[in-house]
Structure formats: C-alpha cells, structure tokens
Amino acid sequence: MPRWTTLCLALVLFCCFSPAWAAPCASYLDQKIGYRLLFQPDGTVQEYNKDGVVQAVHQYYRAGQSVWLRNYETGYGQQYQFVGNGKQLKKSDSSWGDTIYIQQQRNSCPSLQKLGYLTKPECSYGKEKECCAAGDSNACVADAQSSANIPILQQQCRTQPQACLGLLELYDKAANKRDNPFSGMYAEKKPLPAAQLDEIADSCSRFKTPDLCRKAVQQLWRAQRFSQSAQLFETLCKANLDEHACARHKQLISLQFPKALASATTLPCGEYLSTVSALSGTMVFKDRGMVTISLGSQLRARLEDGLIKLRHDKGGDFVFARLSDTILLGMDDWNNFEVYRRESAPQQVCQAPIIYKEEPLSSNCGLDKDPAVCCQAGDTQGCNRLGSMAALANNWKEAALQYAKVCEKGVRVGCENWIYTVGKTGDEGVEAGLKKLCAKDDHHVACDLLETDRVTQAMLGYELEKMLKETKTEQPAKKP
C-alpha cells in the first residue's frame, strides 16, 4: 500500500474514532451578551465578559457530548452540551433559559482524566467527607473550611484557589475578631500578619483567578504595602482580571511610597480630586473639619490613629492616609486604592476642627442579658438594643424613644440611629431634641450632626419615599 494511502487512512481513523471525551479546546462566544469561554490545555476555562475581563475561571471535563464546568473559586458546577455538529455549546438554565455559545477558534488539547469527578453532582451540605473520600477535591476544601483546618487548607492552597479563599476568610476572621458583637458591619478592618499577606499574594500570582487576586491586593493595601499592591495590580492587569487594574497600576507606579507612612498630624485643606472609579470624585476640605463630597453632602473630618477619618451615615468612616500634603490614599472598603490629589493650594488656611465630646457605646449588655434591664440601669448598649429590636419590628416611634436615651449620653451611634428614624417617621421632634442637647452643651455630638445636615438628609429621604408611595397609589389600575 502506498505511503500516502496509509497516511490518509490513519487520518480518517483518527477523525472518525477519536475518543468521545476529547477535550473541547477552543473559544466559544455567546453572541447575545458577548461573553466568551476559552478552554485551555491545562483543564481550565477562562470566562470573559464583553469587555474582555475575566469573570471566572473553571475546571472542565468532557464525556461524550457533555462538558462539565466547575468554578475554580466557588465550586459551583454547570453542565453544557455540544450541539450543531459540535461547533456549539448549550447551557440550559431553568430560570434564564438556554444560552448558545458559538465556536470561534479551535486548538489542540489533551484530555484530563483526573477531572472526571466533575461529572458528579455538587456535594450536598453535610456530606463533604464522603464526597472528599470519593475523589471530589472541591468537597475536600469545603470540609477543611467548615472545620477551620488551617494546615489542610494551606496544603490544598498549593493546587486549588478555592482553598486559598477559604484560608483567607479564616485569616480575616481571626484578625478582625470583634469583642463587641454590636460594633457594626462597617467597623474598620485590621491587616493580616506579614506571613499570611505573603501567602495570599503568592497564591494570586500562582492561580491568577479574579476573586482571589482582588481580595489579595485589598489585603496588601489595607496593610499599607502600597508598592507591593502596585506590583500585584500589574498581575491583574496582564491577566485581565479587573476592569480598573491597568489604570490602578499606572497610577500607583507614578507615586513614591516610603517604607512606612508618617502619621497625619493636621487635617487637609482644599480640593482633592480622584480619577479612577472613585466613590466621591471630589472632596473639599474646609474650615473646622467640614468636608463637602458628591451631591453637596457635608461630613466632618477628624484625626485618629494617624489617619484622616470622615464619618458617614452607615455607622463607619471613610478613611484616608496622607502620602503628602497634596496626595491622600483611600483606605476604607468604599475608597480602596483611590488616590486623591490637590492640584492647587487653598486660598486661605482652614480653621482647626471642633473637638466634640463623644462617649463610646457600652459593651456591658451582651446577648446573654436582658436589654430592658440593662437600659433601666442606664446602660447605653441595652437601650440601643431595645431601639434596634423595635426598628426590626417596624415600631419606629419606640425605636426613636430608645435611641434618644443613648444620644442624650453623648454616644454618636445613638444620635445617628435617632436621626435614622426620621427617614421612617418624618418626626420633626428629633431635630428639636438634638437642638436642645446642643443648647445645653455646644460640644455635644448632637451639634456635629446638626451642622452636617444629617436631619435634613433624613427628612428629604422621608419626603421622597412618601411622594413615591402617593404616586403609586394615584396610578390607575391597568385594564386586564
């Protein structure tokens, strides 16, 4: 038989009898929304949005006309089917319907038998040990995380980003363990120890998955490792893991970061601007610590722990570190990675801020104690708990009465909660009560909240909600 005939026969046999589980190494496009799946030779799939940013990384396994994808970071699984002569992938969803991905480009990939466990359903809650023993590595991670087994997670983190995320969650909980369970969800976060920071940063460089890398760079920034944050943003930029990563990297490498920032000793003065996805594009620092942000909102700045803090209406602070007289760095979760610059010096020196008298909310009335008994004994945490319980029951008048008791004792959160009830009741008596407290002592925290127009903002919210309800009531019913 001629050699060319033998070669042709071999090619025909390969095409016709290649294993049904051969890997679908290609790029597939959802033409409706522009999402793209890119299958790689290492058994992973990058899922890109229409802007070319990686939304997720999956592991995959093919058997016959089915392909199983499981999210590399969350463990969530999804089955796809080959249709249209193998040039289309169909994802079925009972809620959203079918999604068809069209093959754009085909490559050569090996089959990865070790990922065969992906064909099995996701492990049921409480069955992680059994699933792990059966070879489901995602279940092994879930089991180690639920038992807080850090040594096992550290070992798994060498090969699975899901384990690294579980490890980071445990590290973060340990670093930010709250002595007071009522400290609020917006309490400032503490940085991780140096060794843990290095471990998480290395895992991002190793796997290059979006959620892990975003959280890794957030931890570095929180620890004021600014130069290392800039380097990690370069990794995110090159791997297309975040839409702002390239702009962040370009902005940060233009700055000179010292080994340790000097503590801020005075408040800024003048107008500071940010250009990359800022929560507030402009901040104007004025006399007595007053700061104007977007839509004319007024906040009060203060110095604390060498940082500049602006109290917001969620019970926490916008936090800034001073890099220089003209550059501020956003440090809180709302302003992470933001760089605010002052382009020109202010026309006059800002007056020093007023120091208001503030008392901390007590921590003597835990969940094991009756808040009514605590409040009757004068404990502010007990009264605040009673107010929160009334608010949850939609009894805003009772909530206002309890919060007022906390505010009277100079506890800021009590005054803030009292003002919050205005947005639900429209009660003008709250403002009158705050003015009464301020008249007795012009350094009472109530004076600060009055000057920053917090009551006015709450009343505007109430009026807007009232108007929307009235408009909805007046609308004629649609004819059947």
TrEMBL record:
It comes from the Bacteria. The keyword Signal applies. Residues 1-22 form the signal peptide. Keywords: Signal. The keyword Signal applies. This is Beta-lactamase. It comes from Trichlorobacter thiogenes.
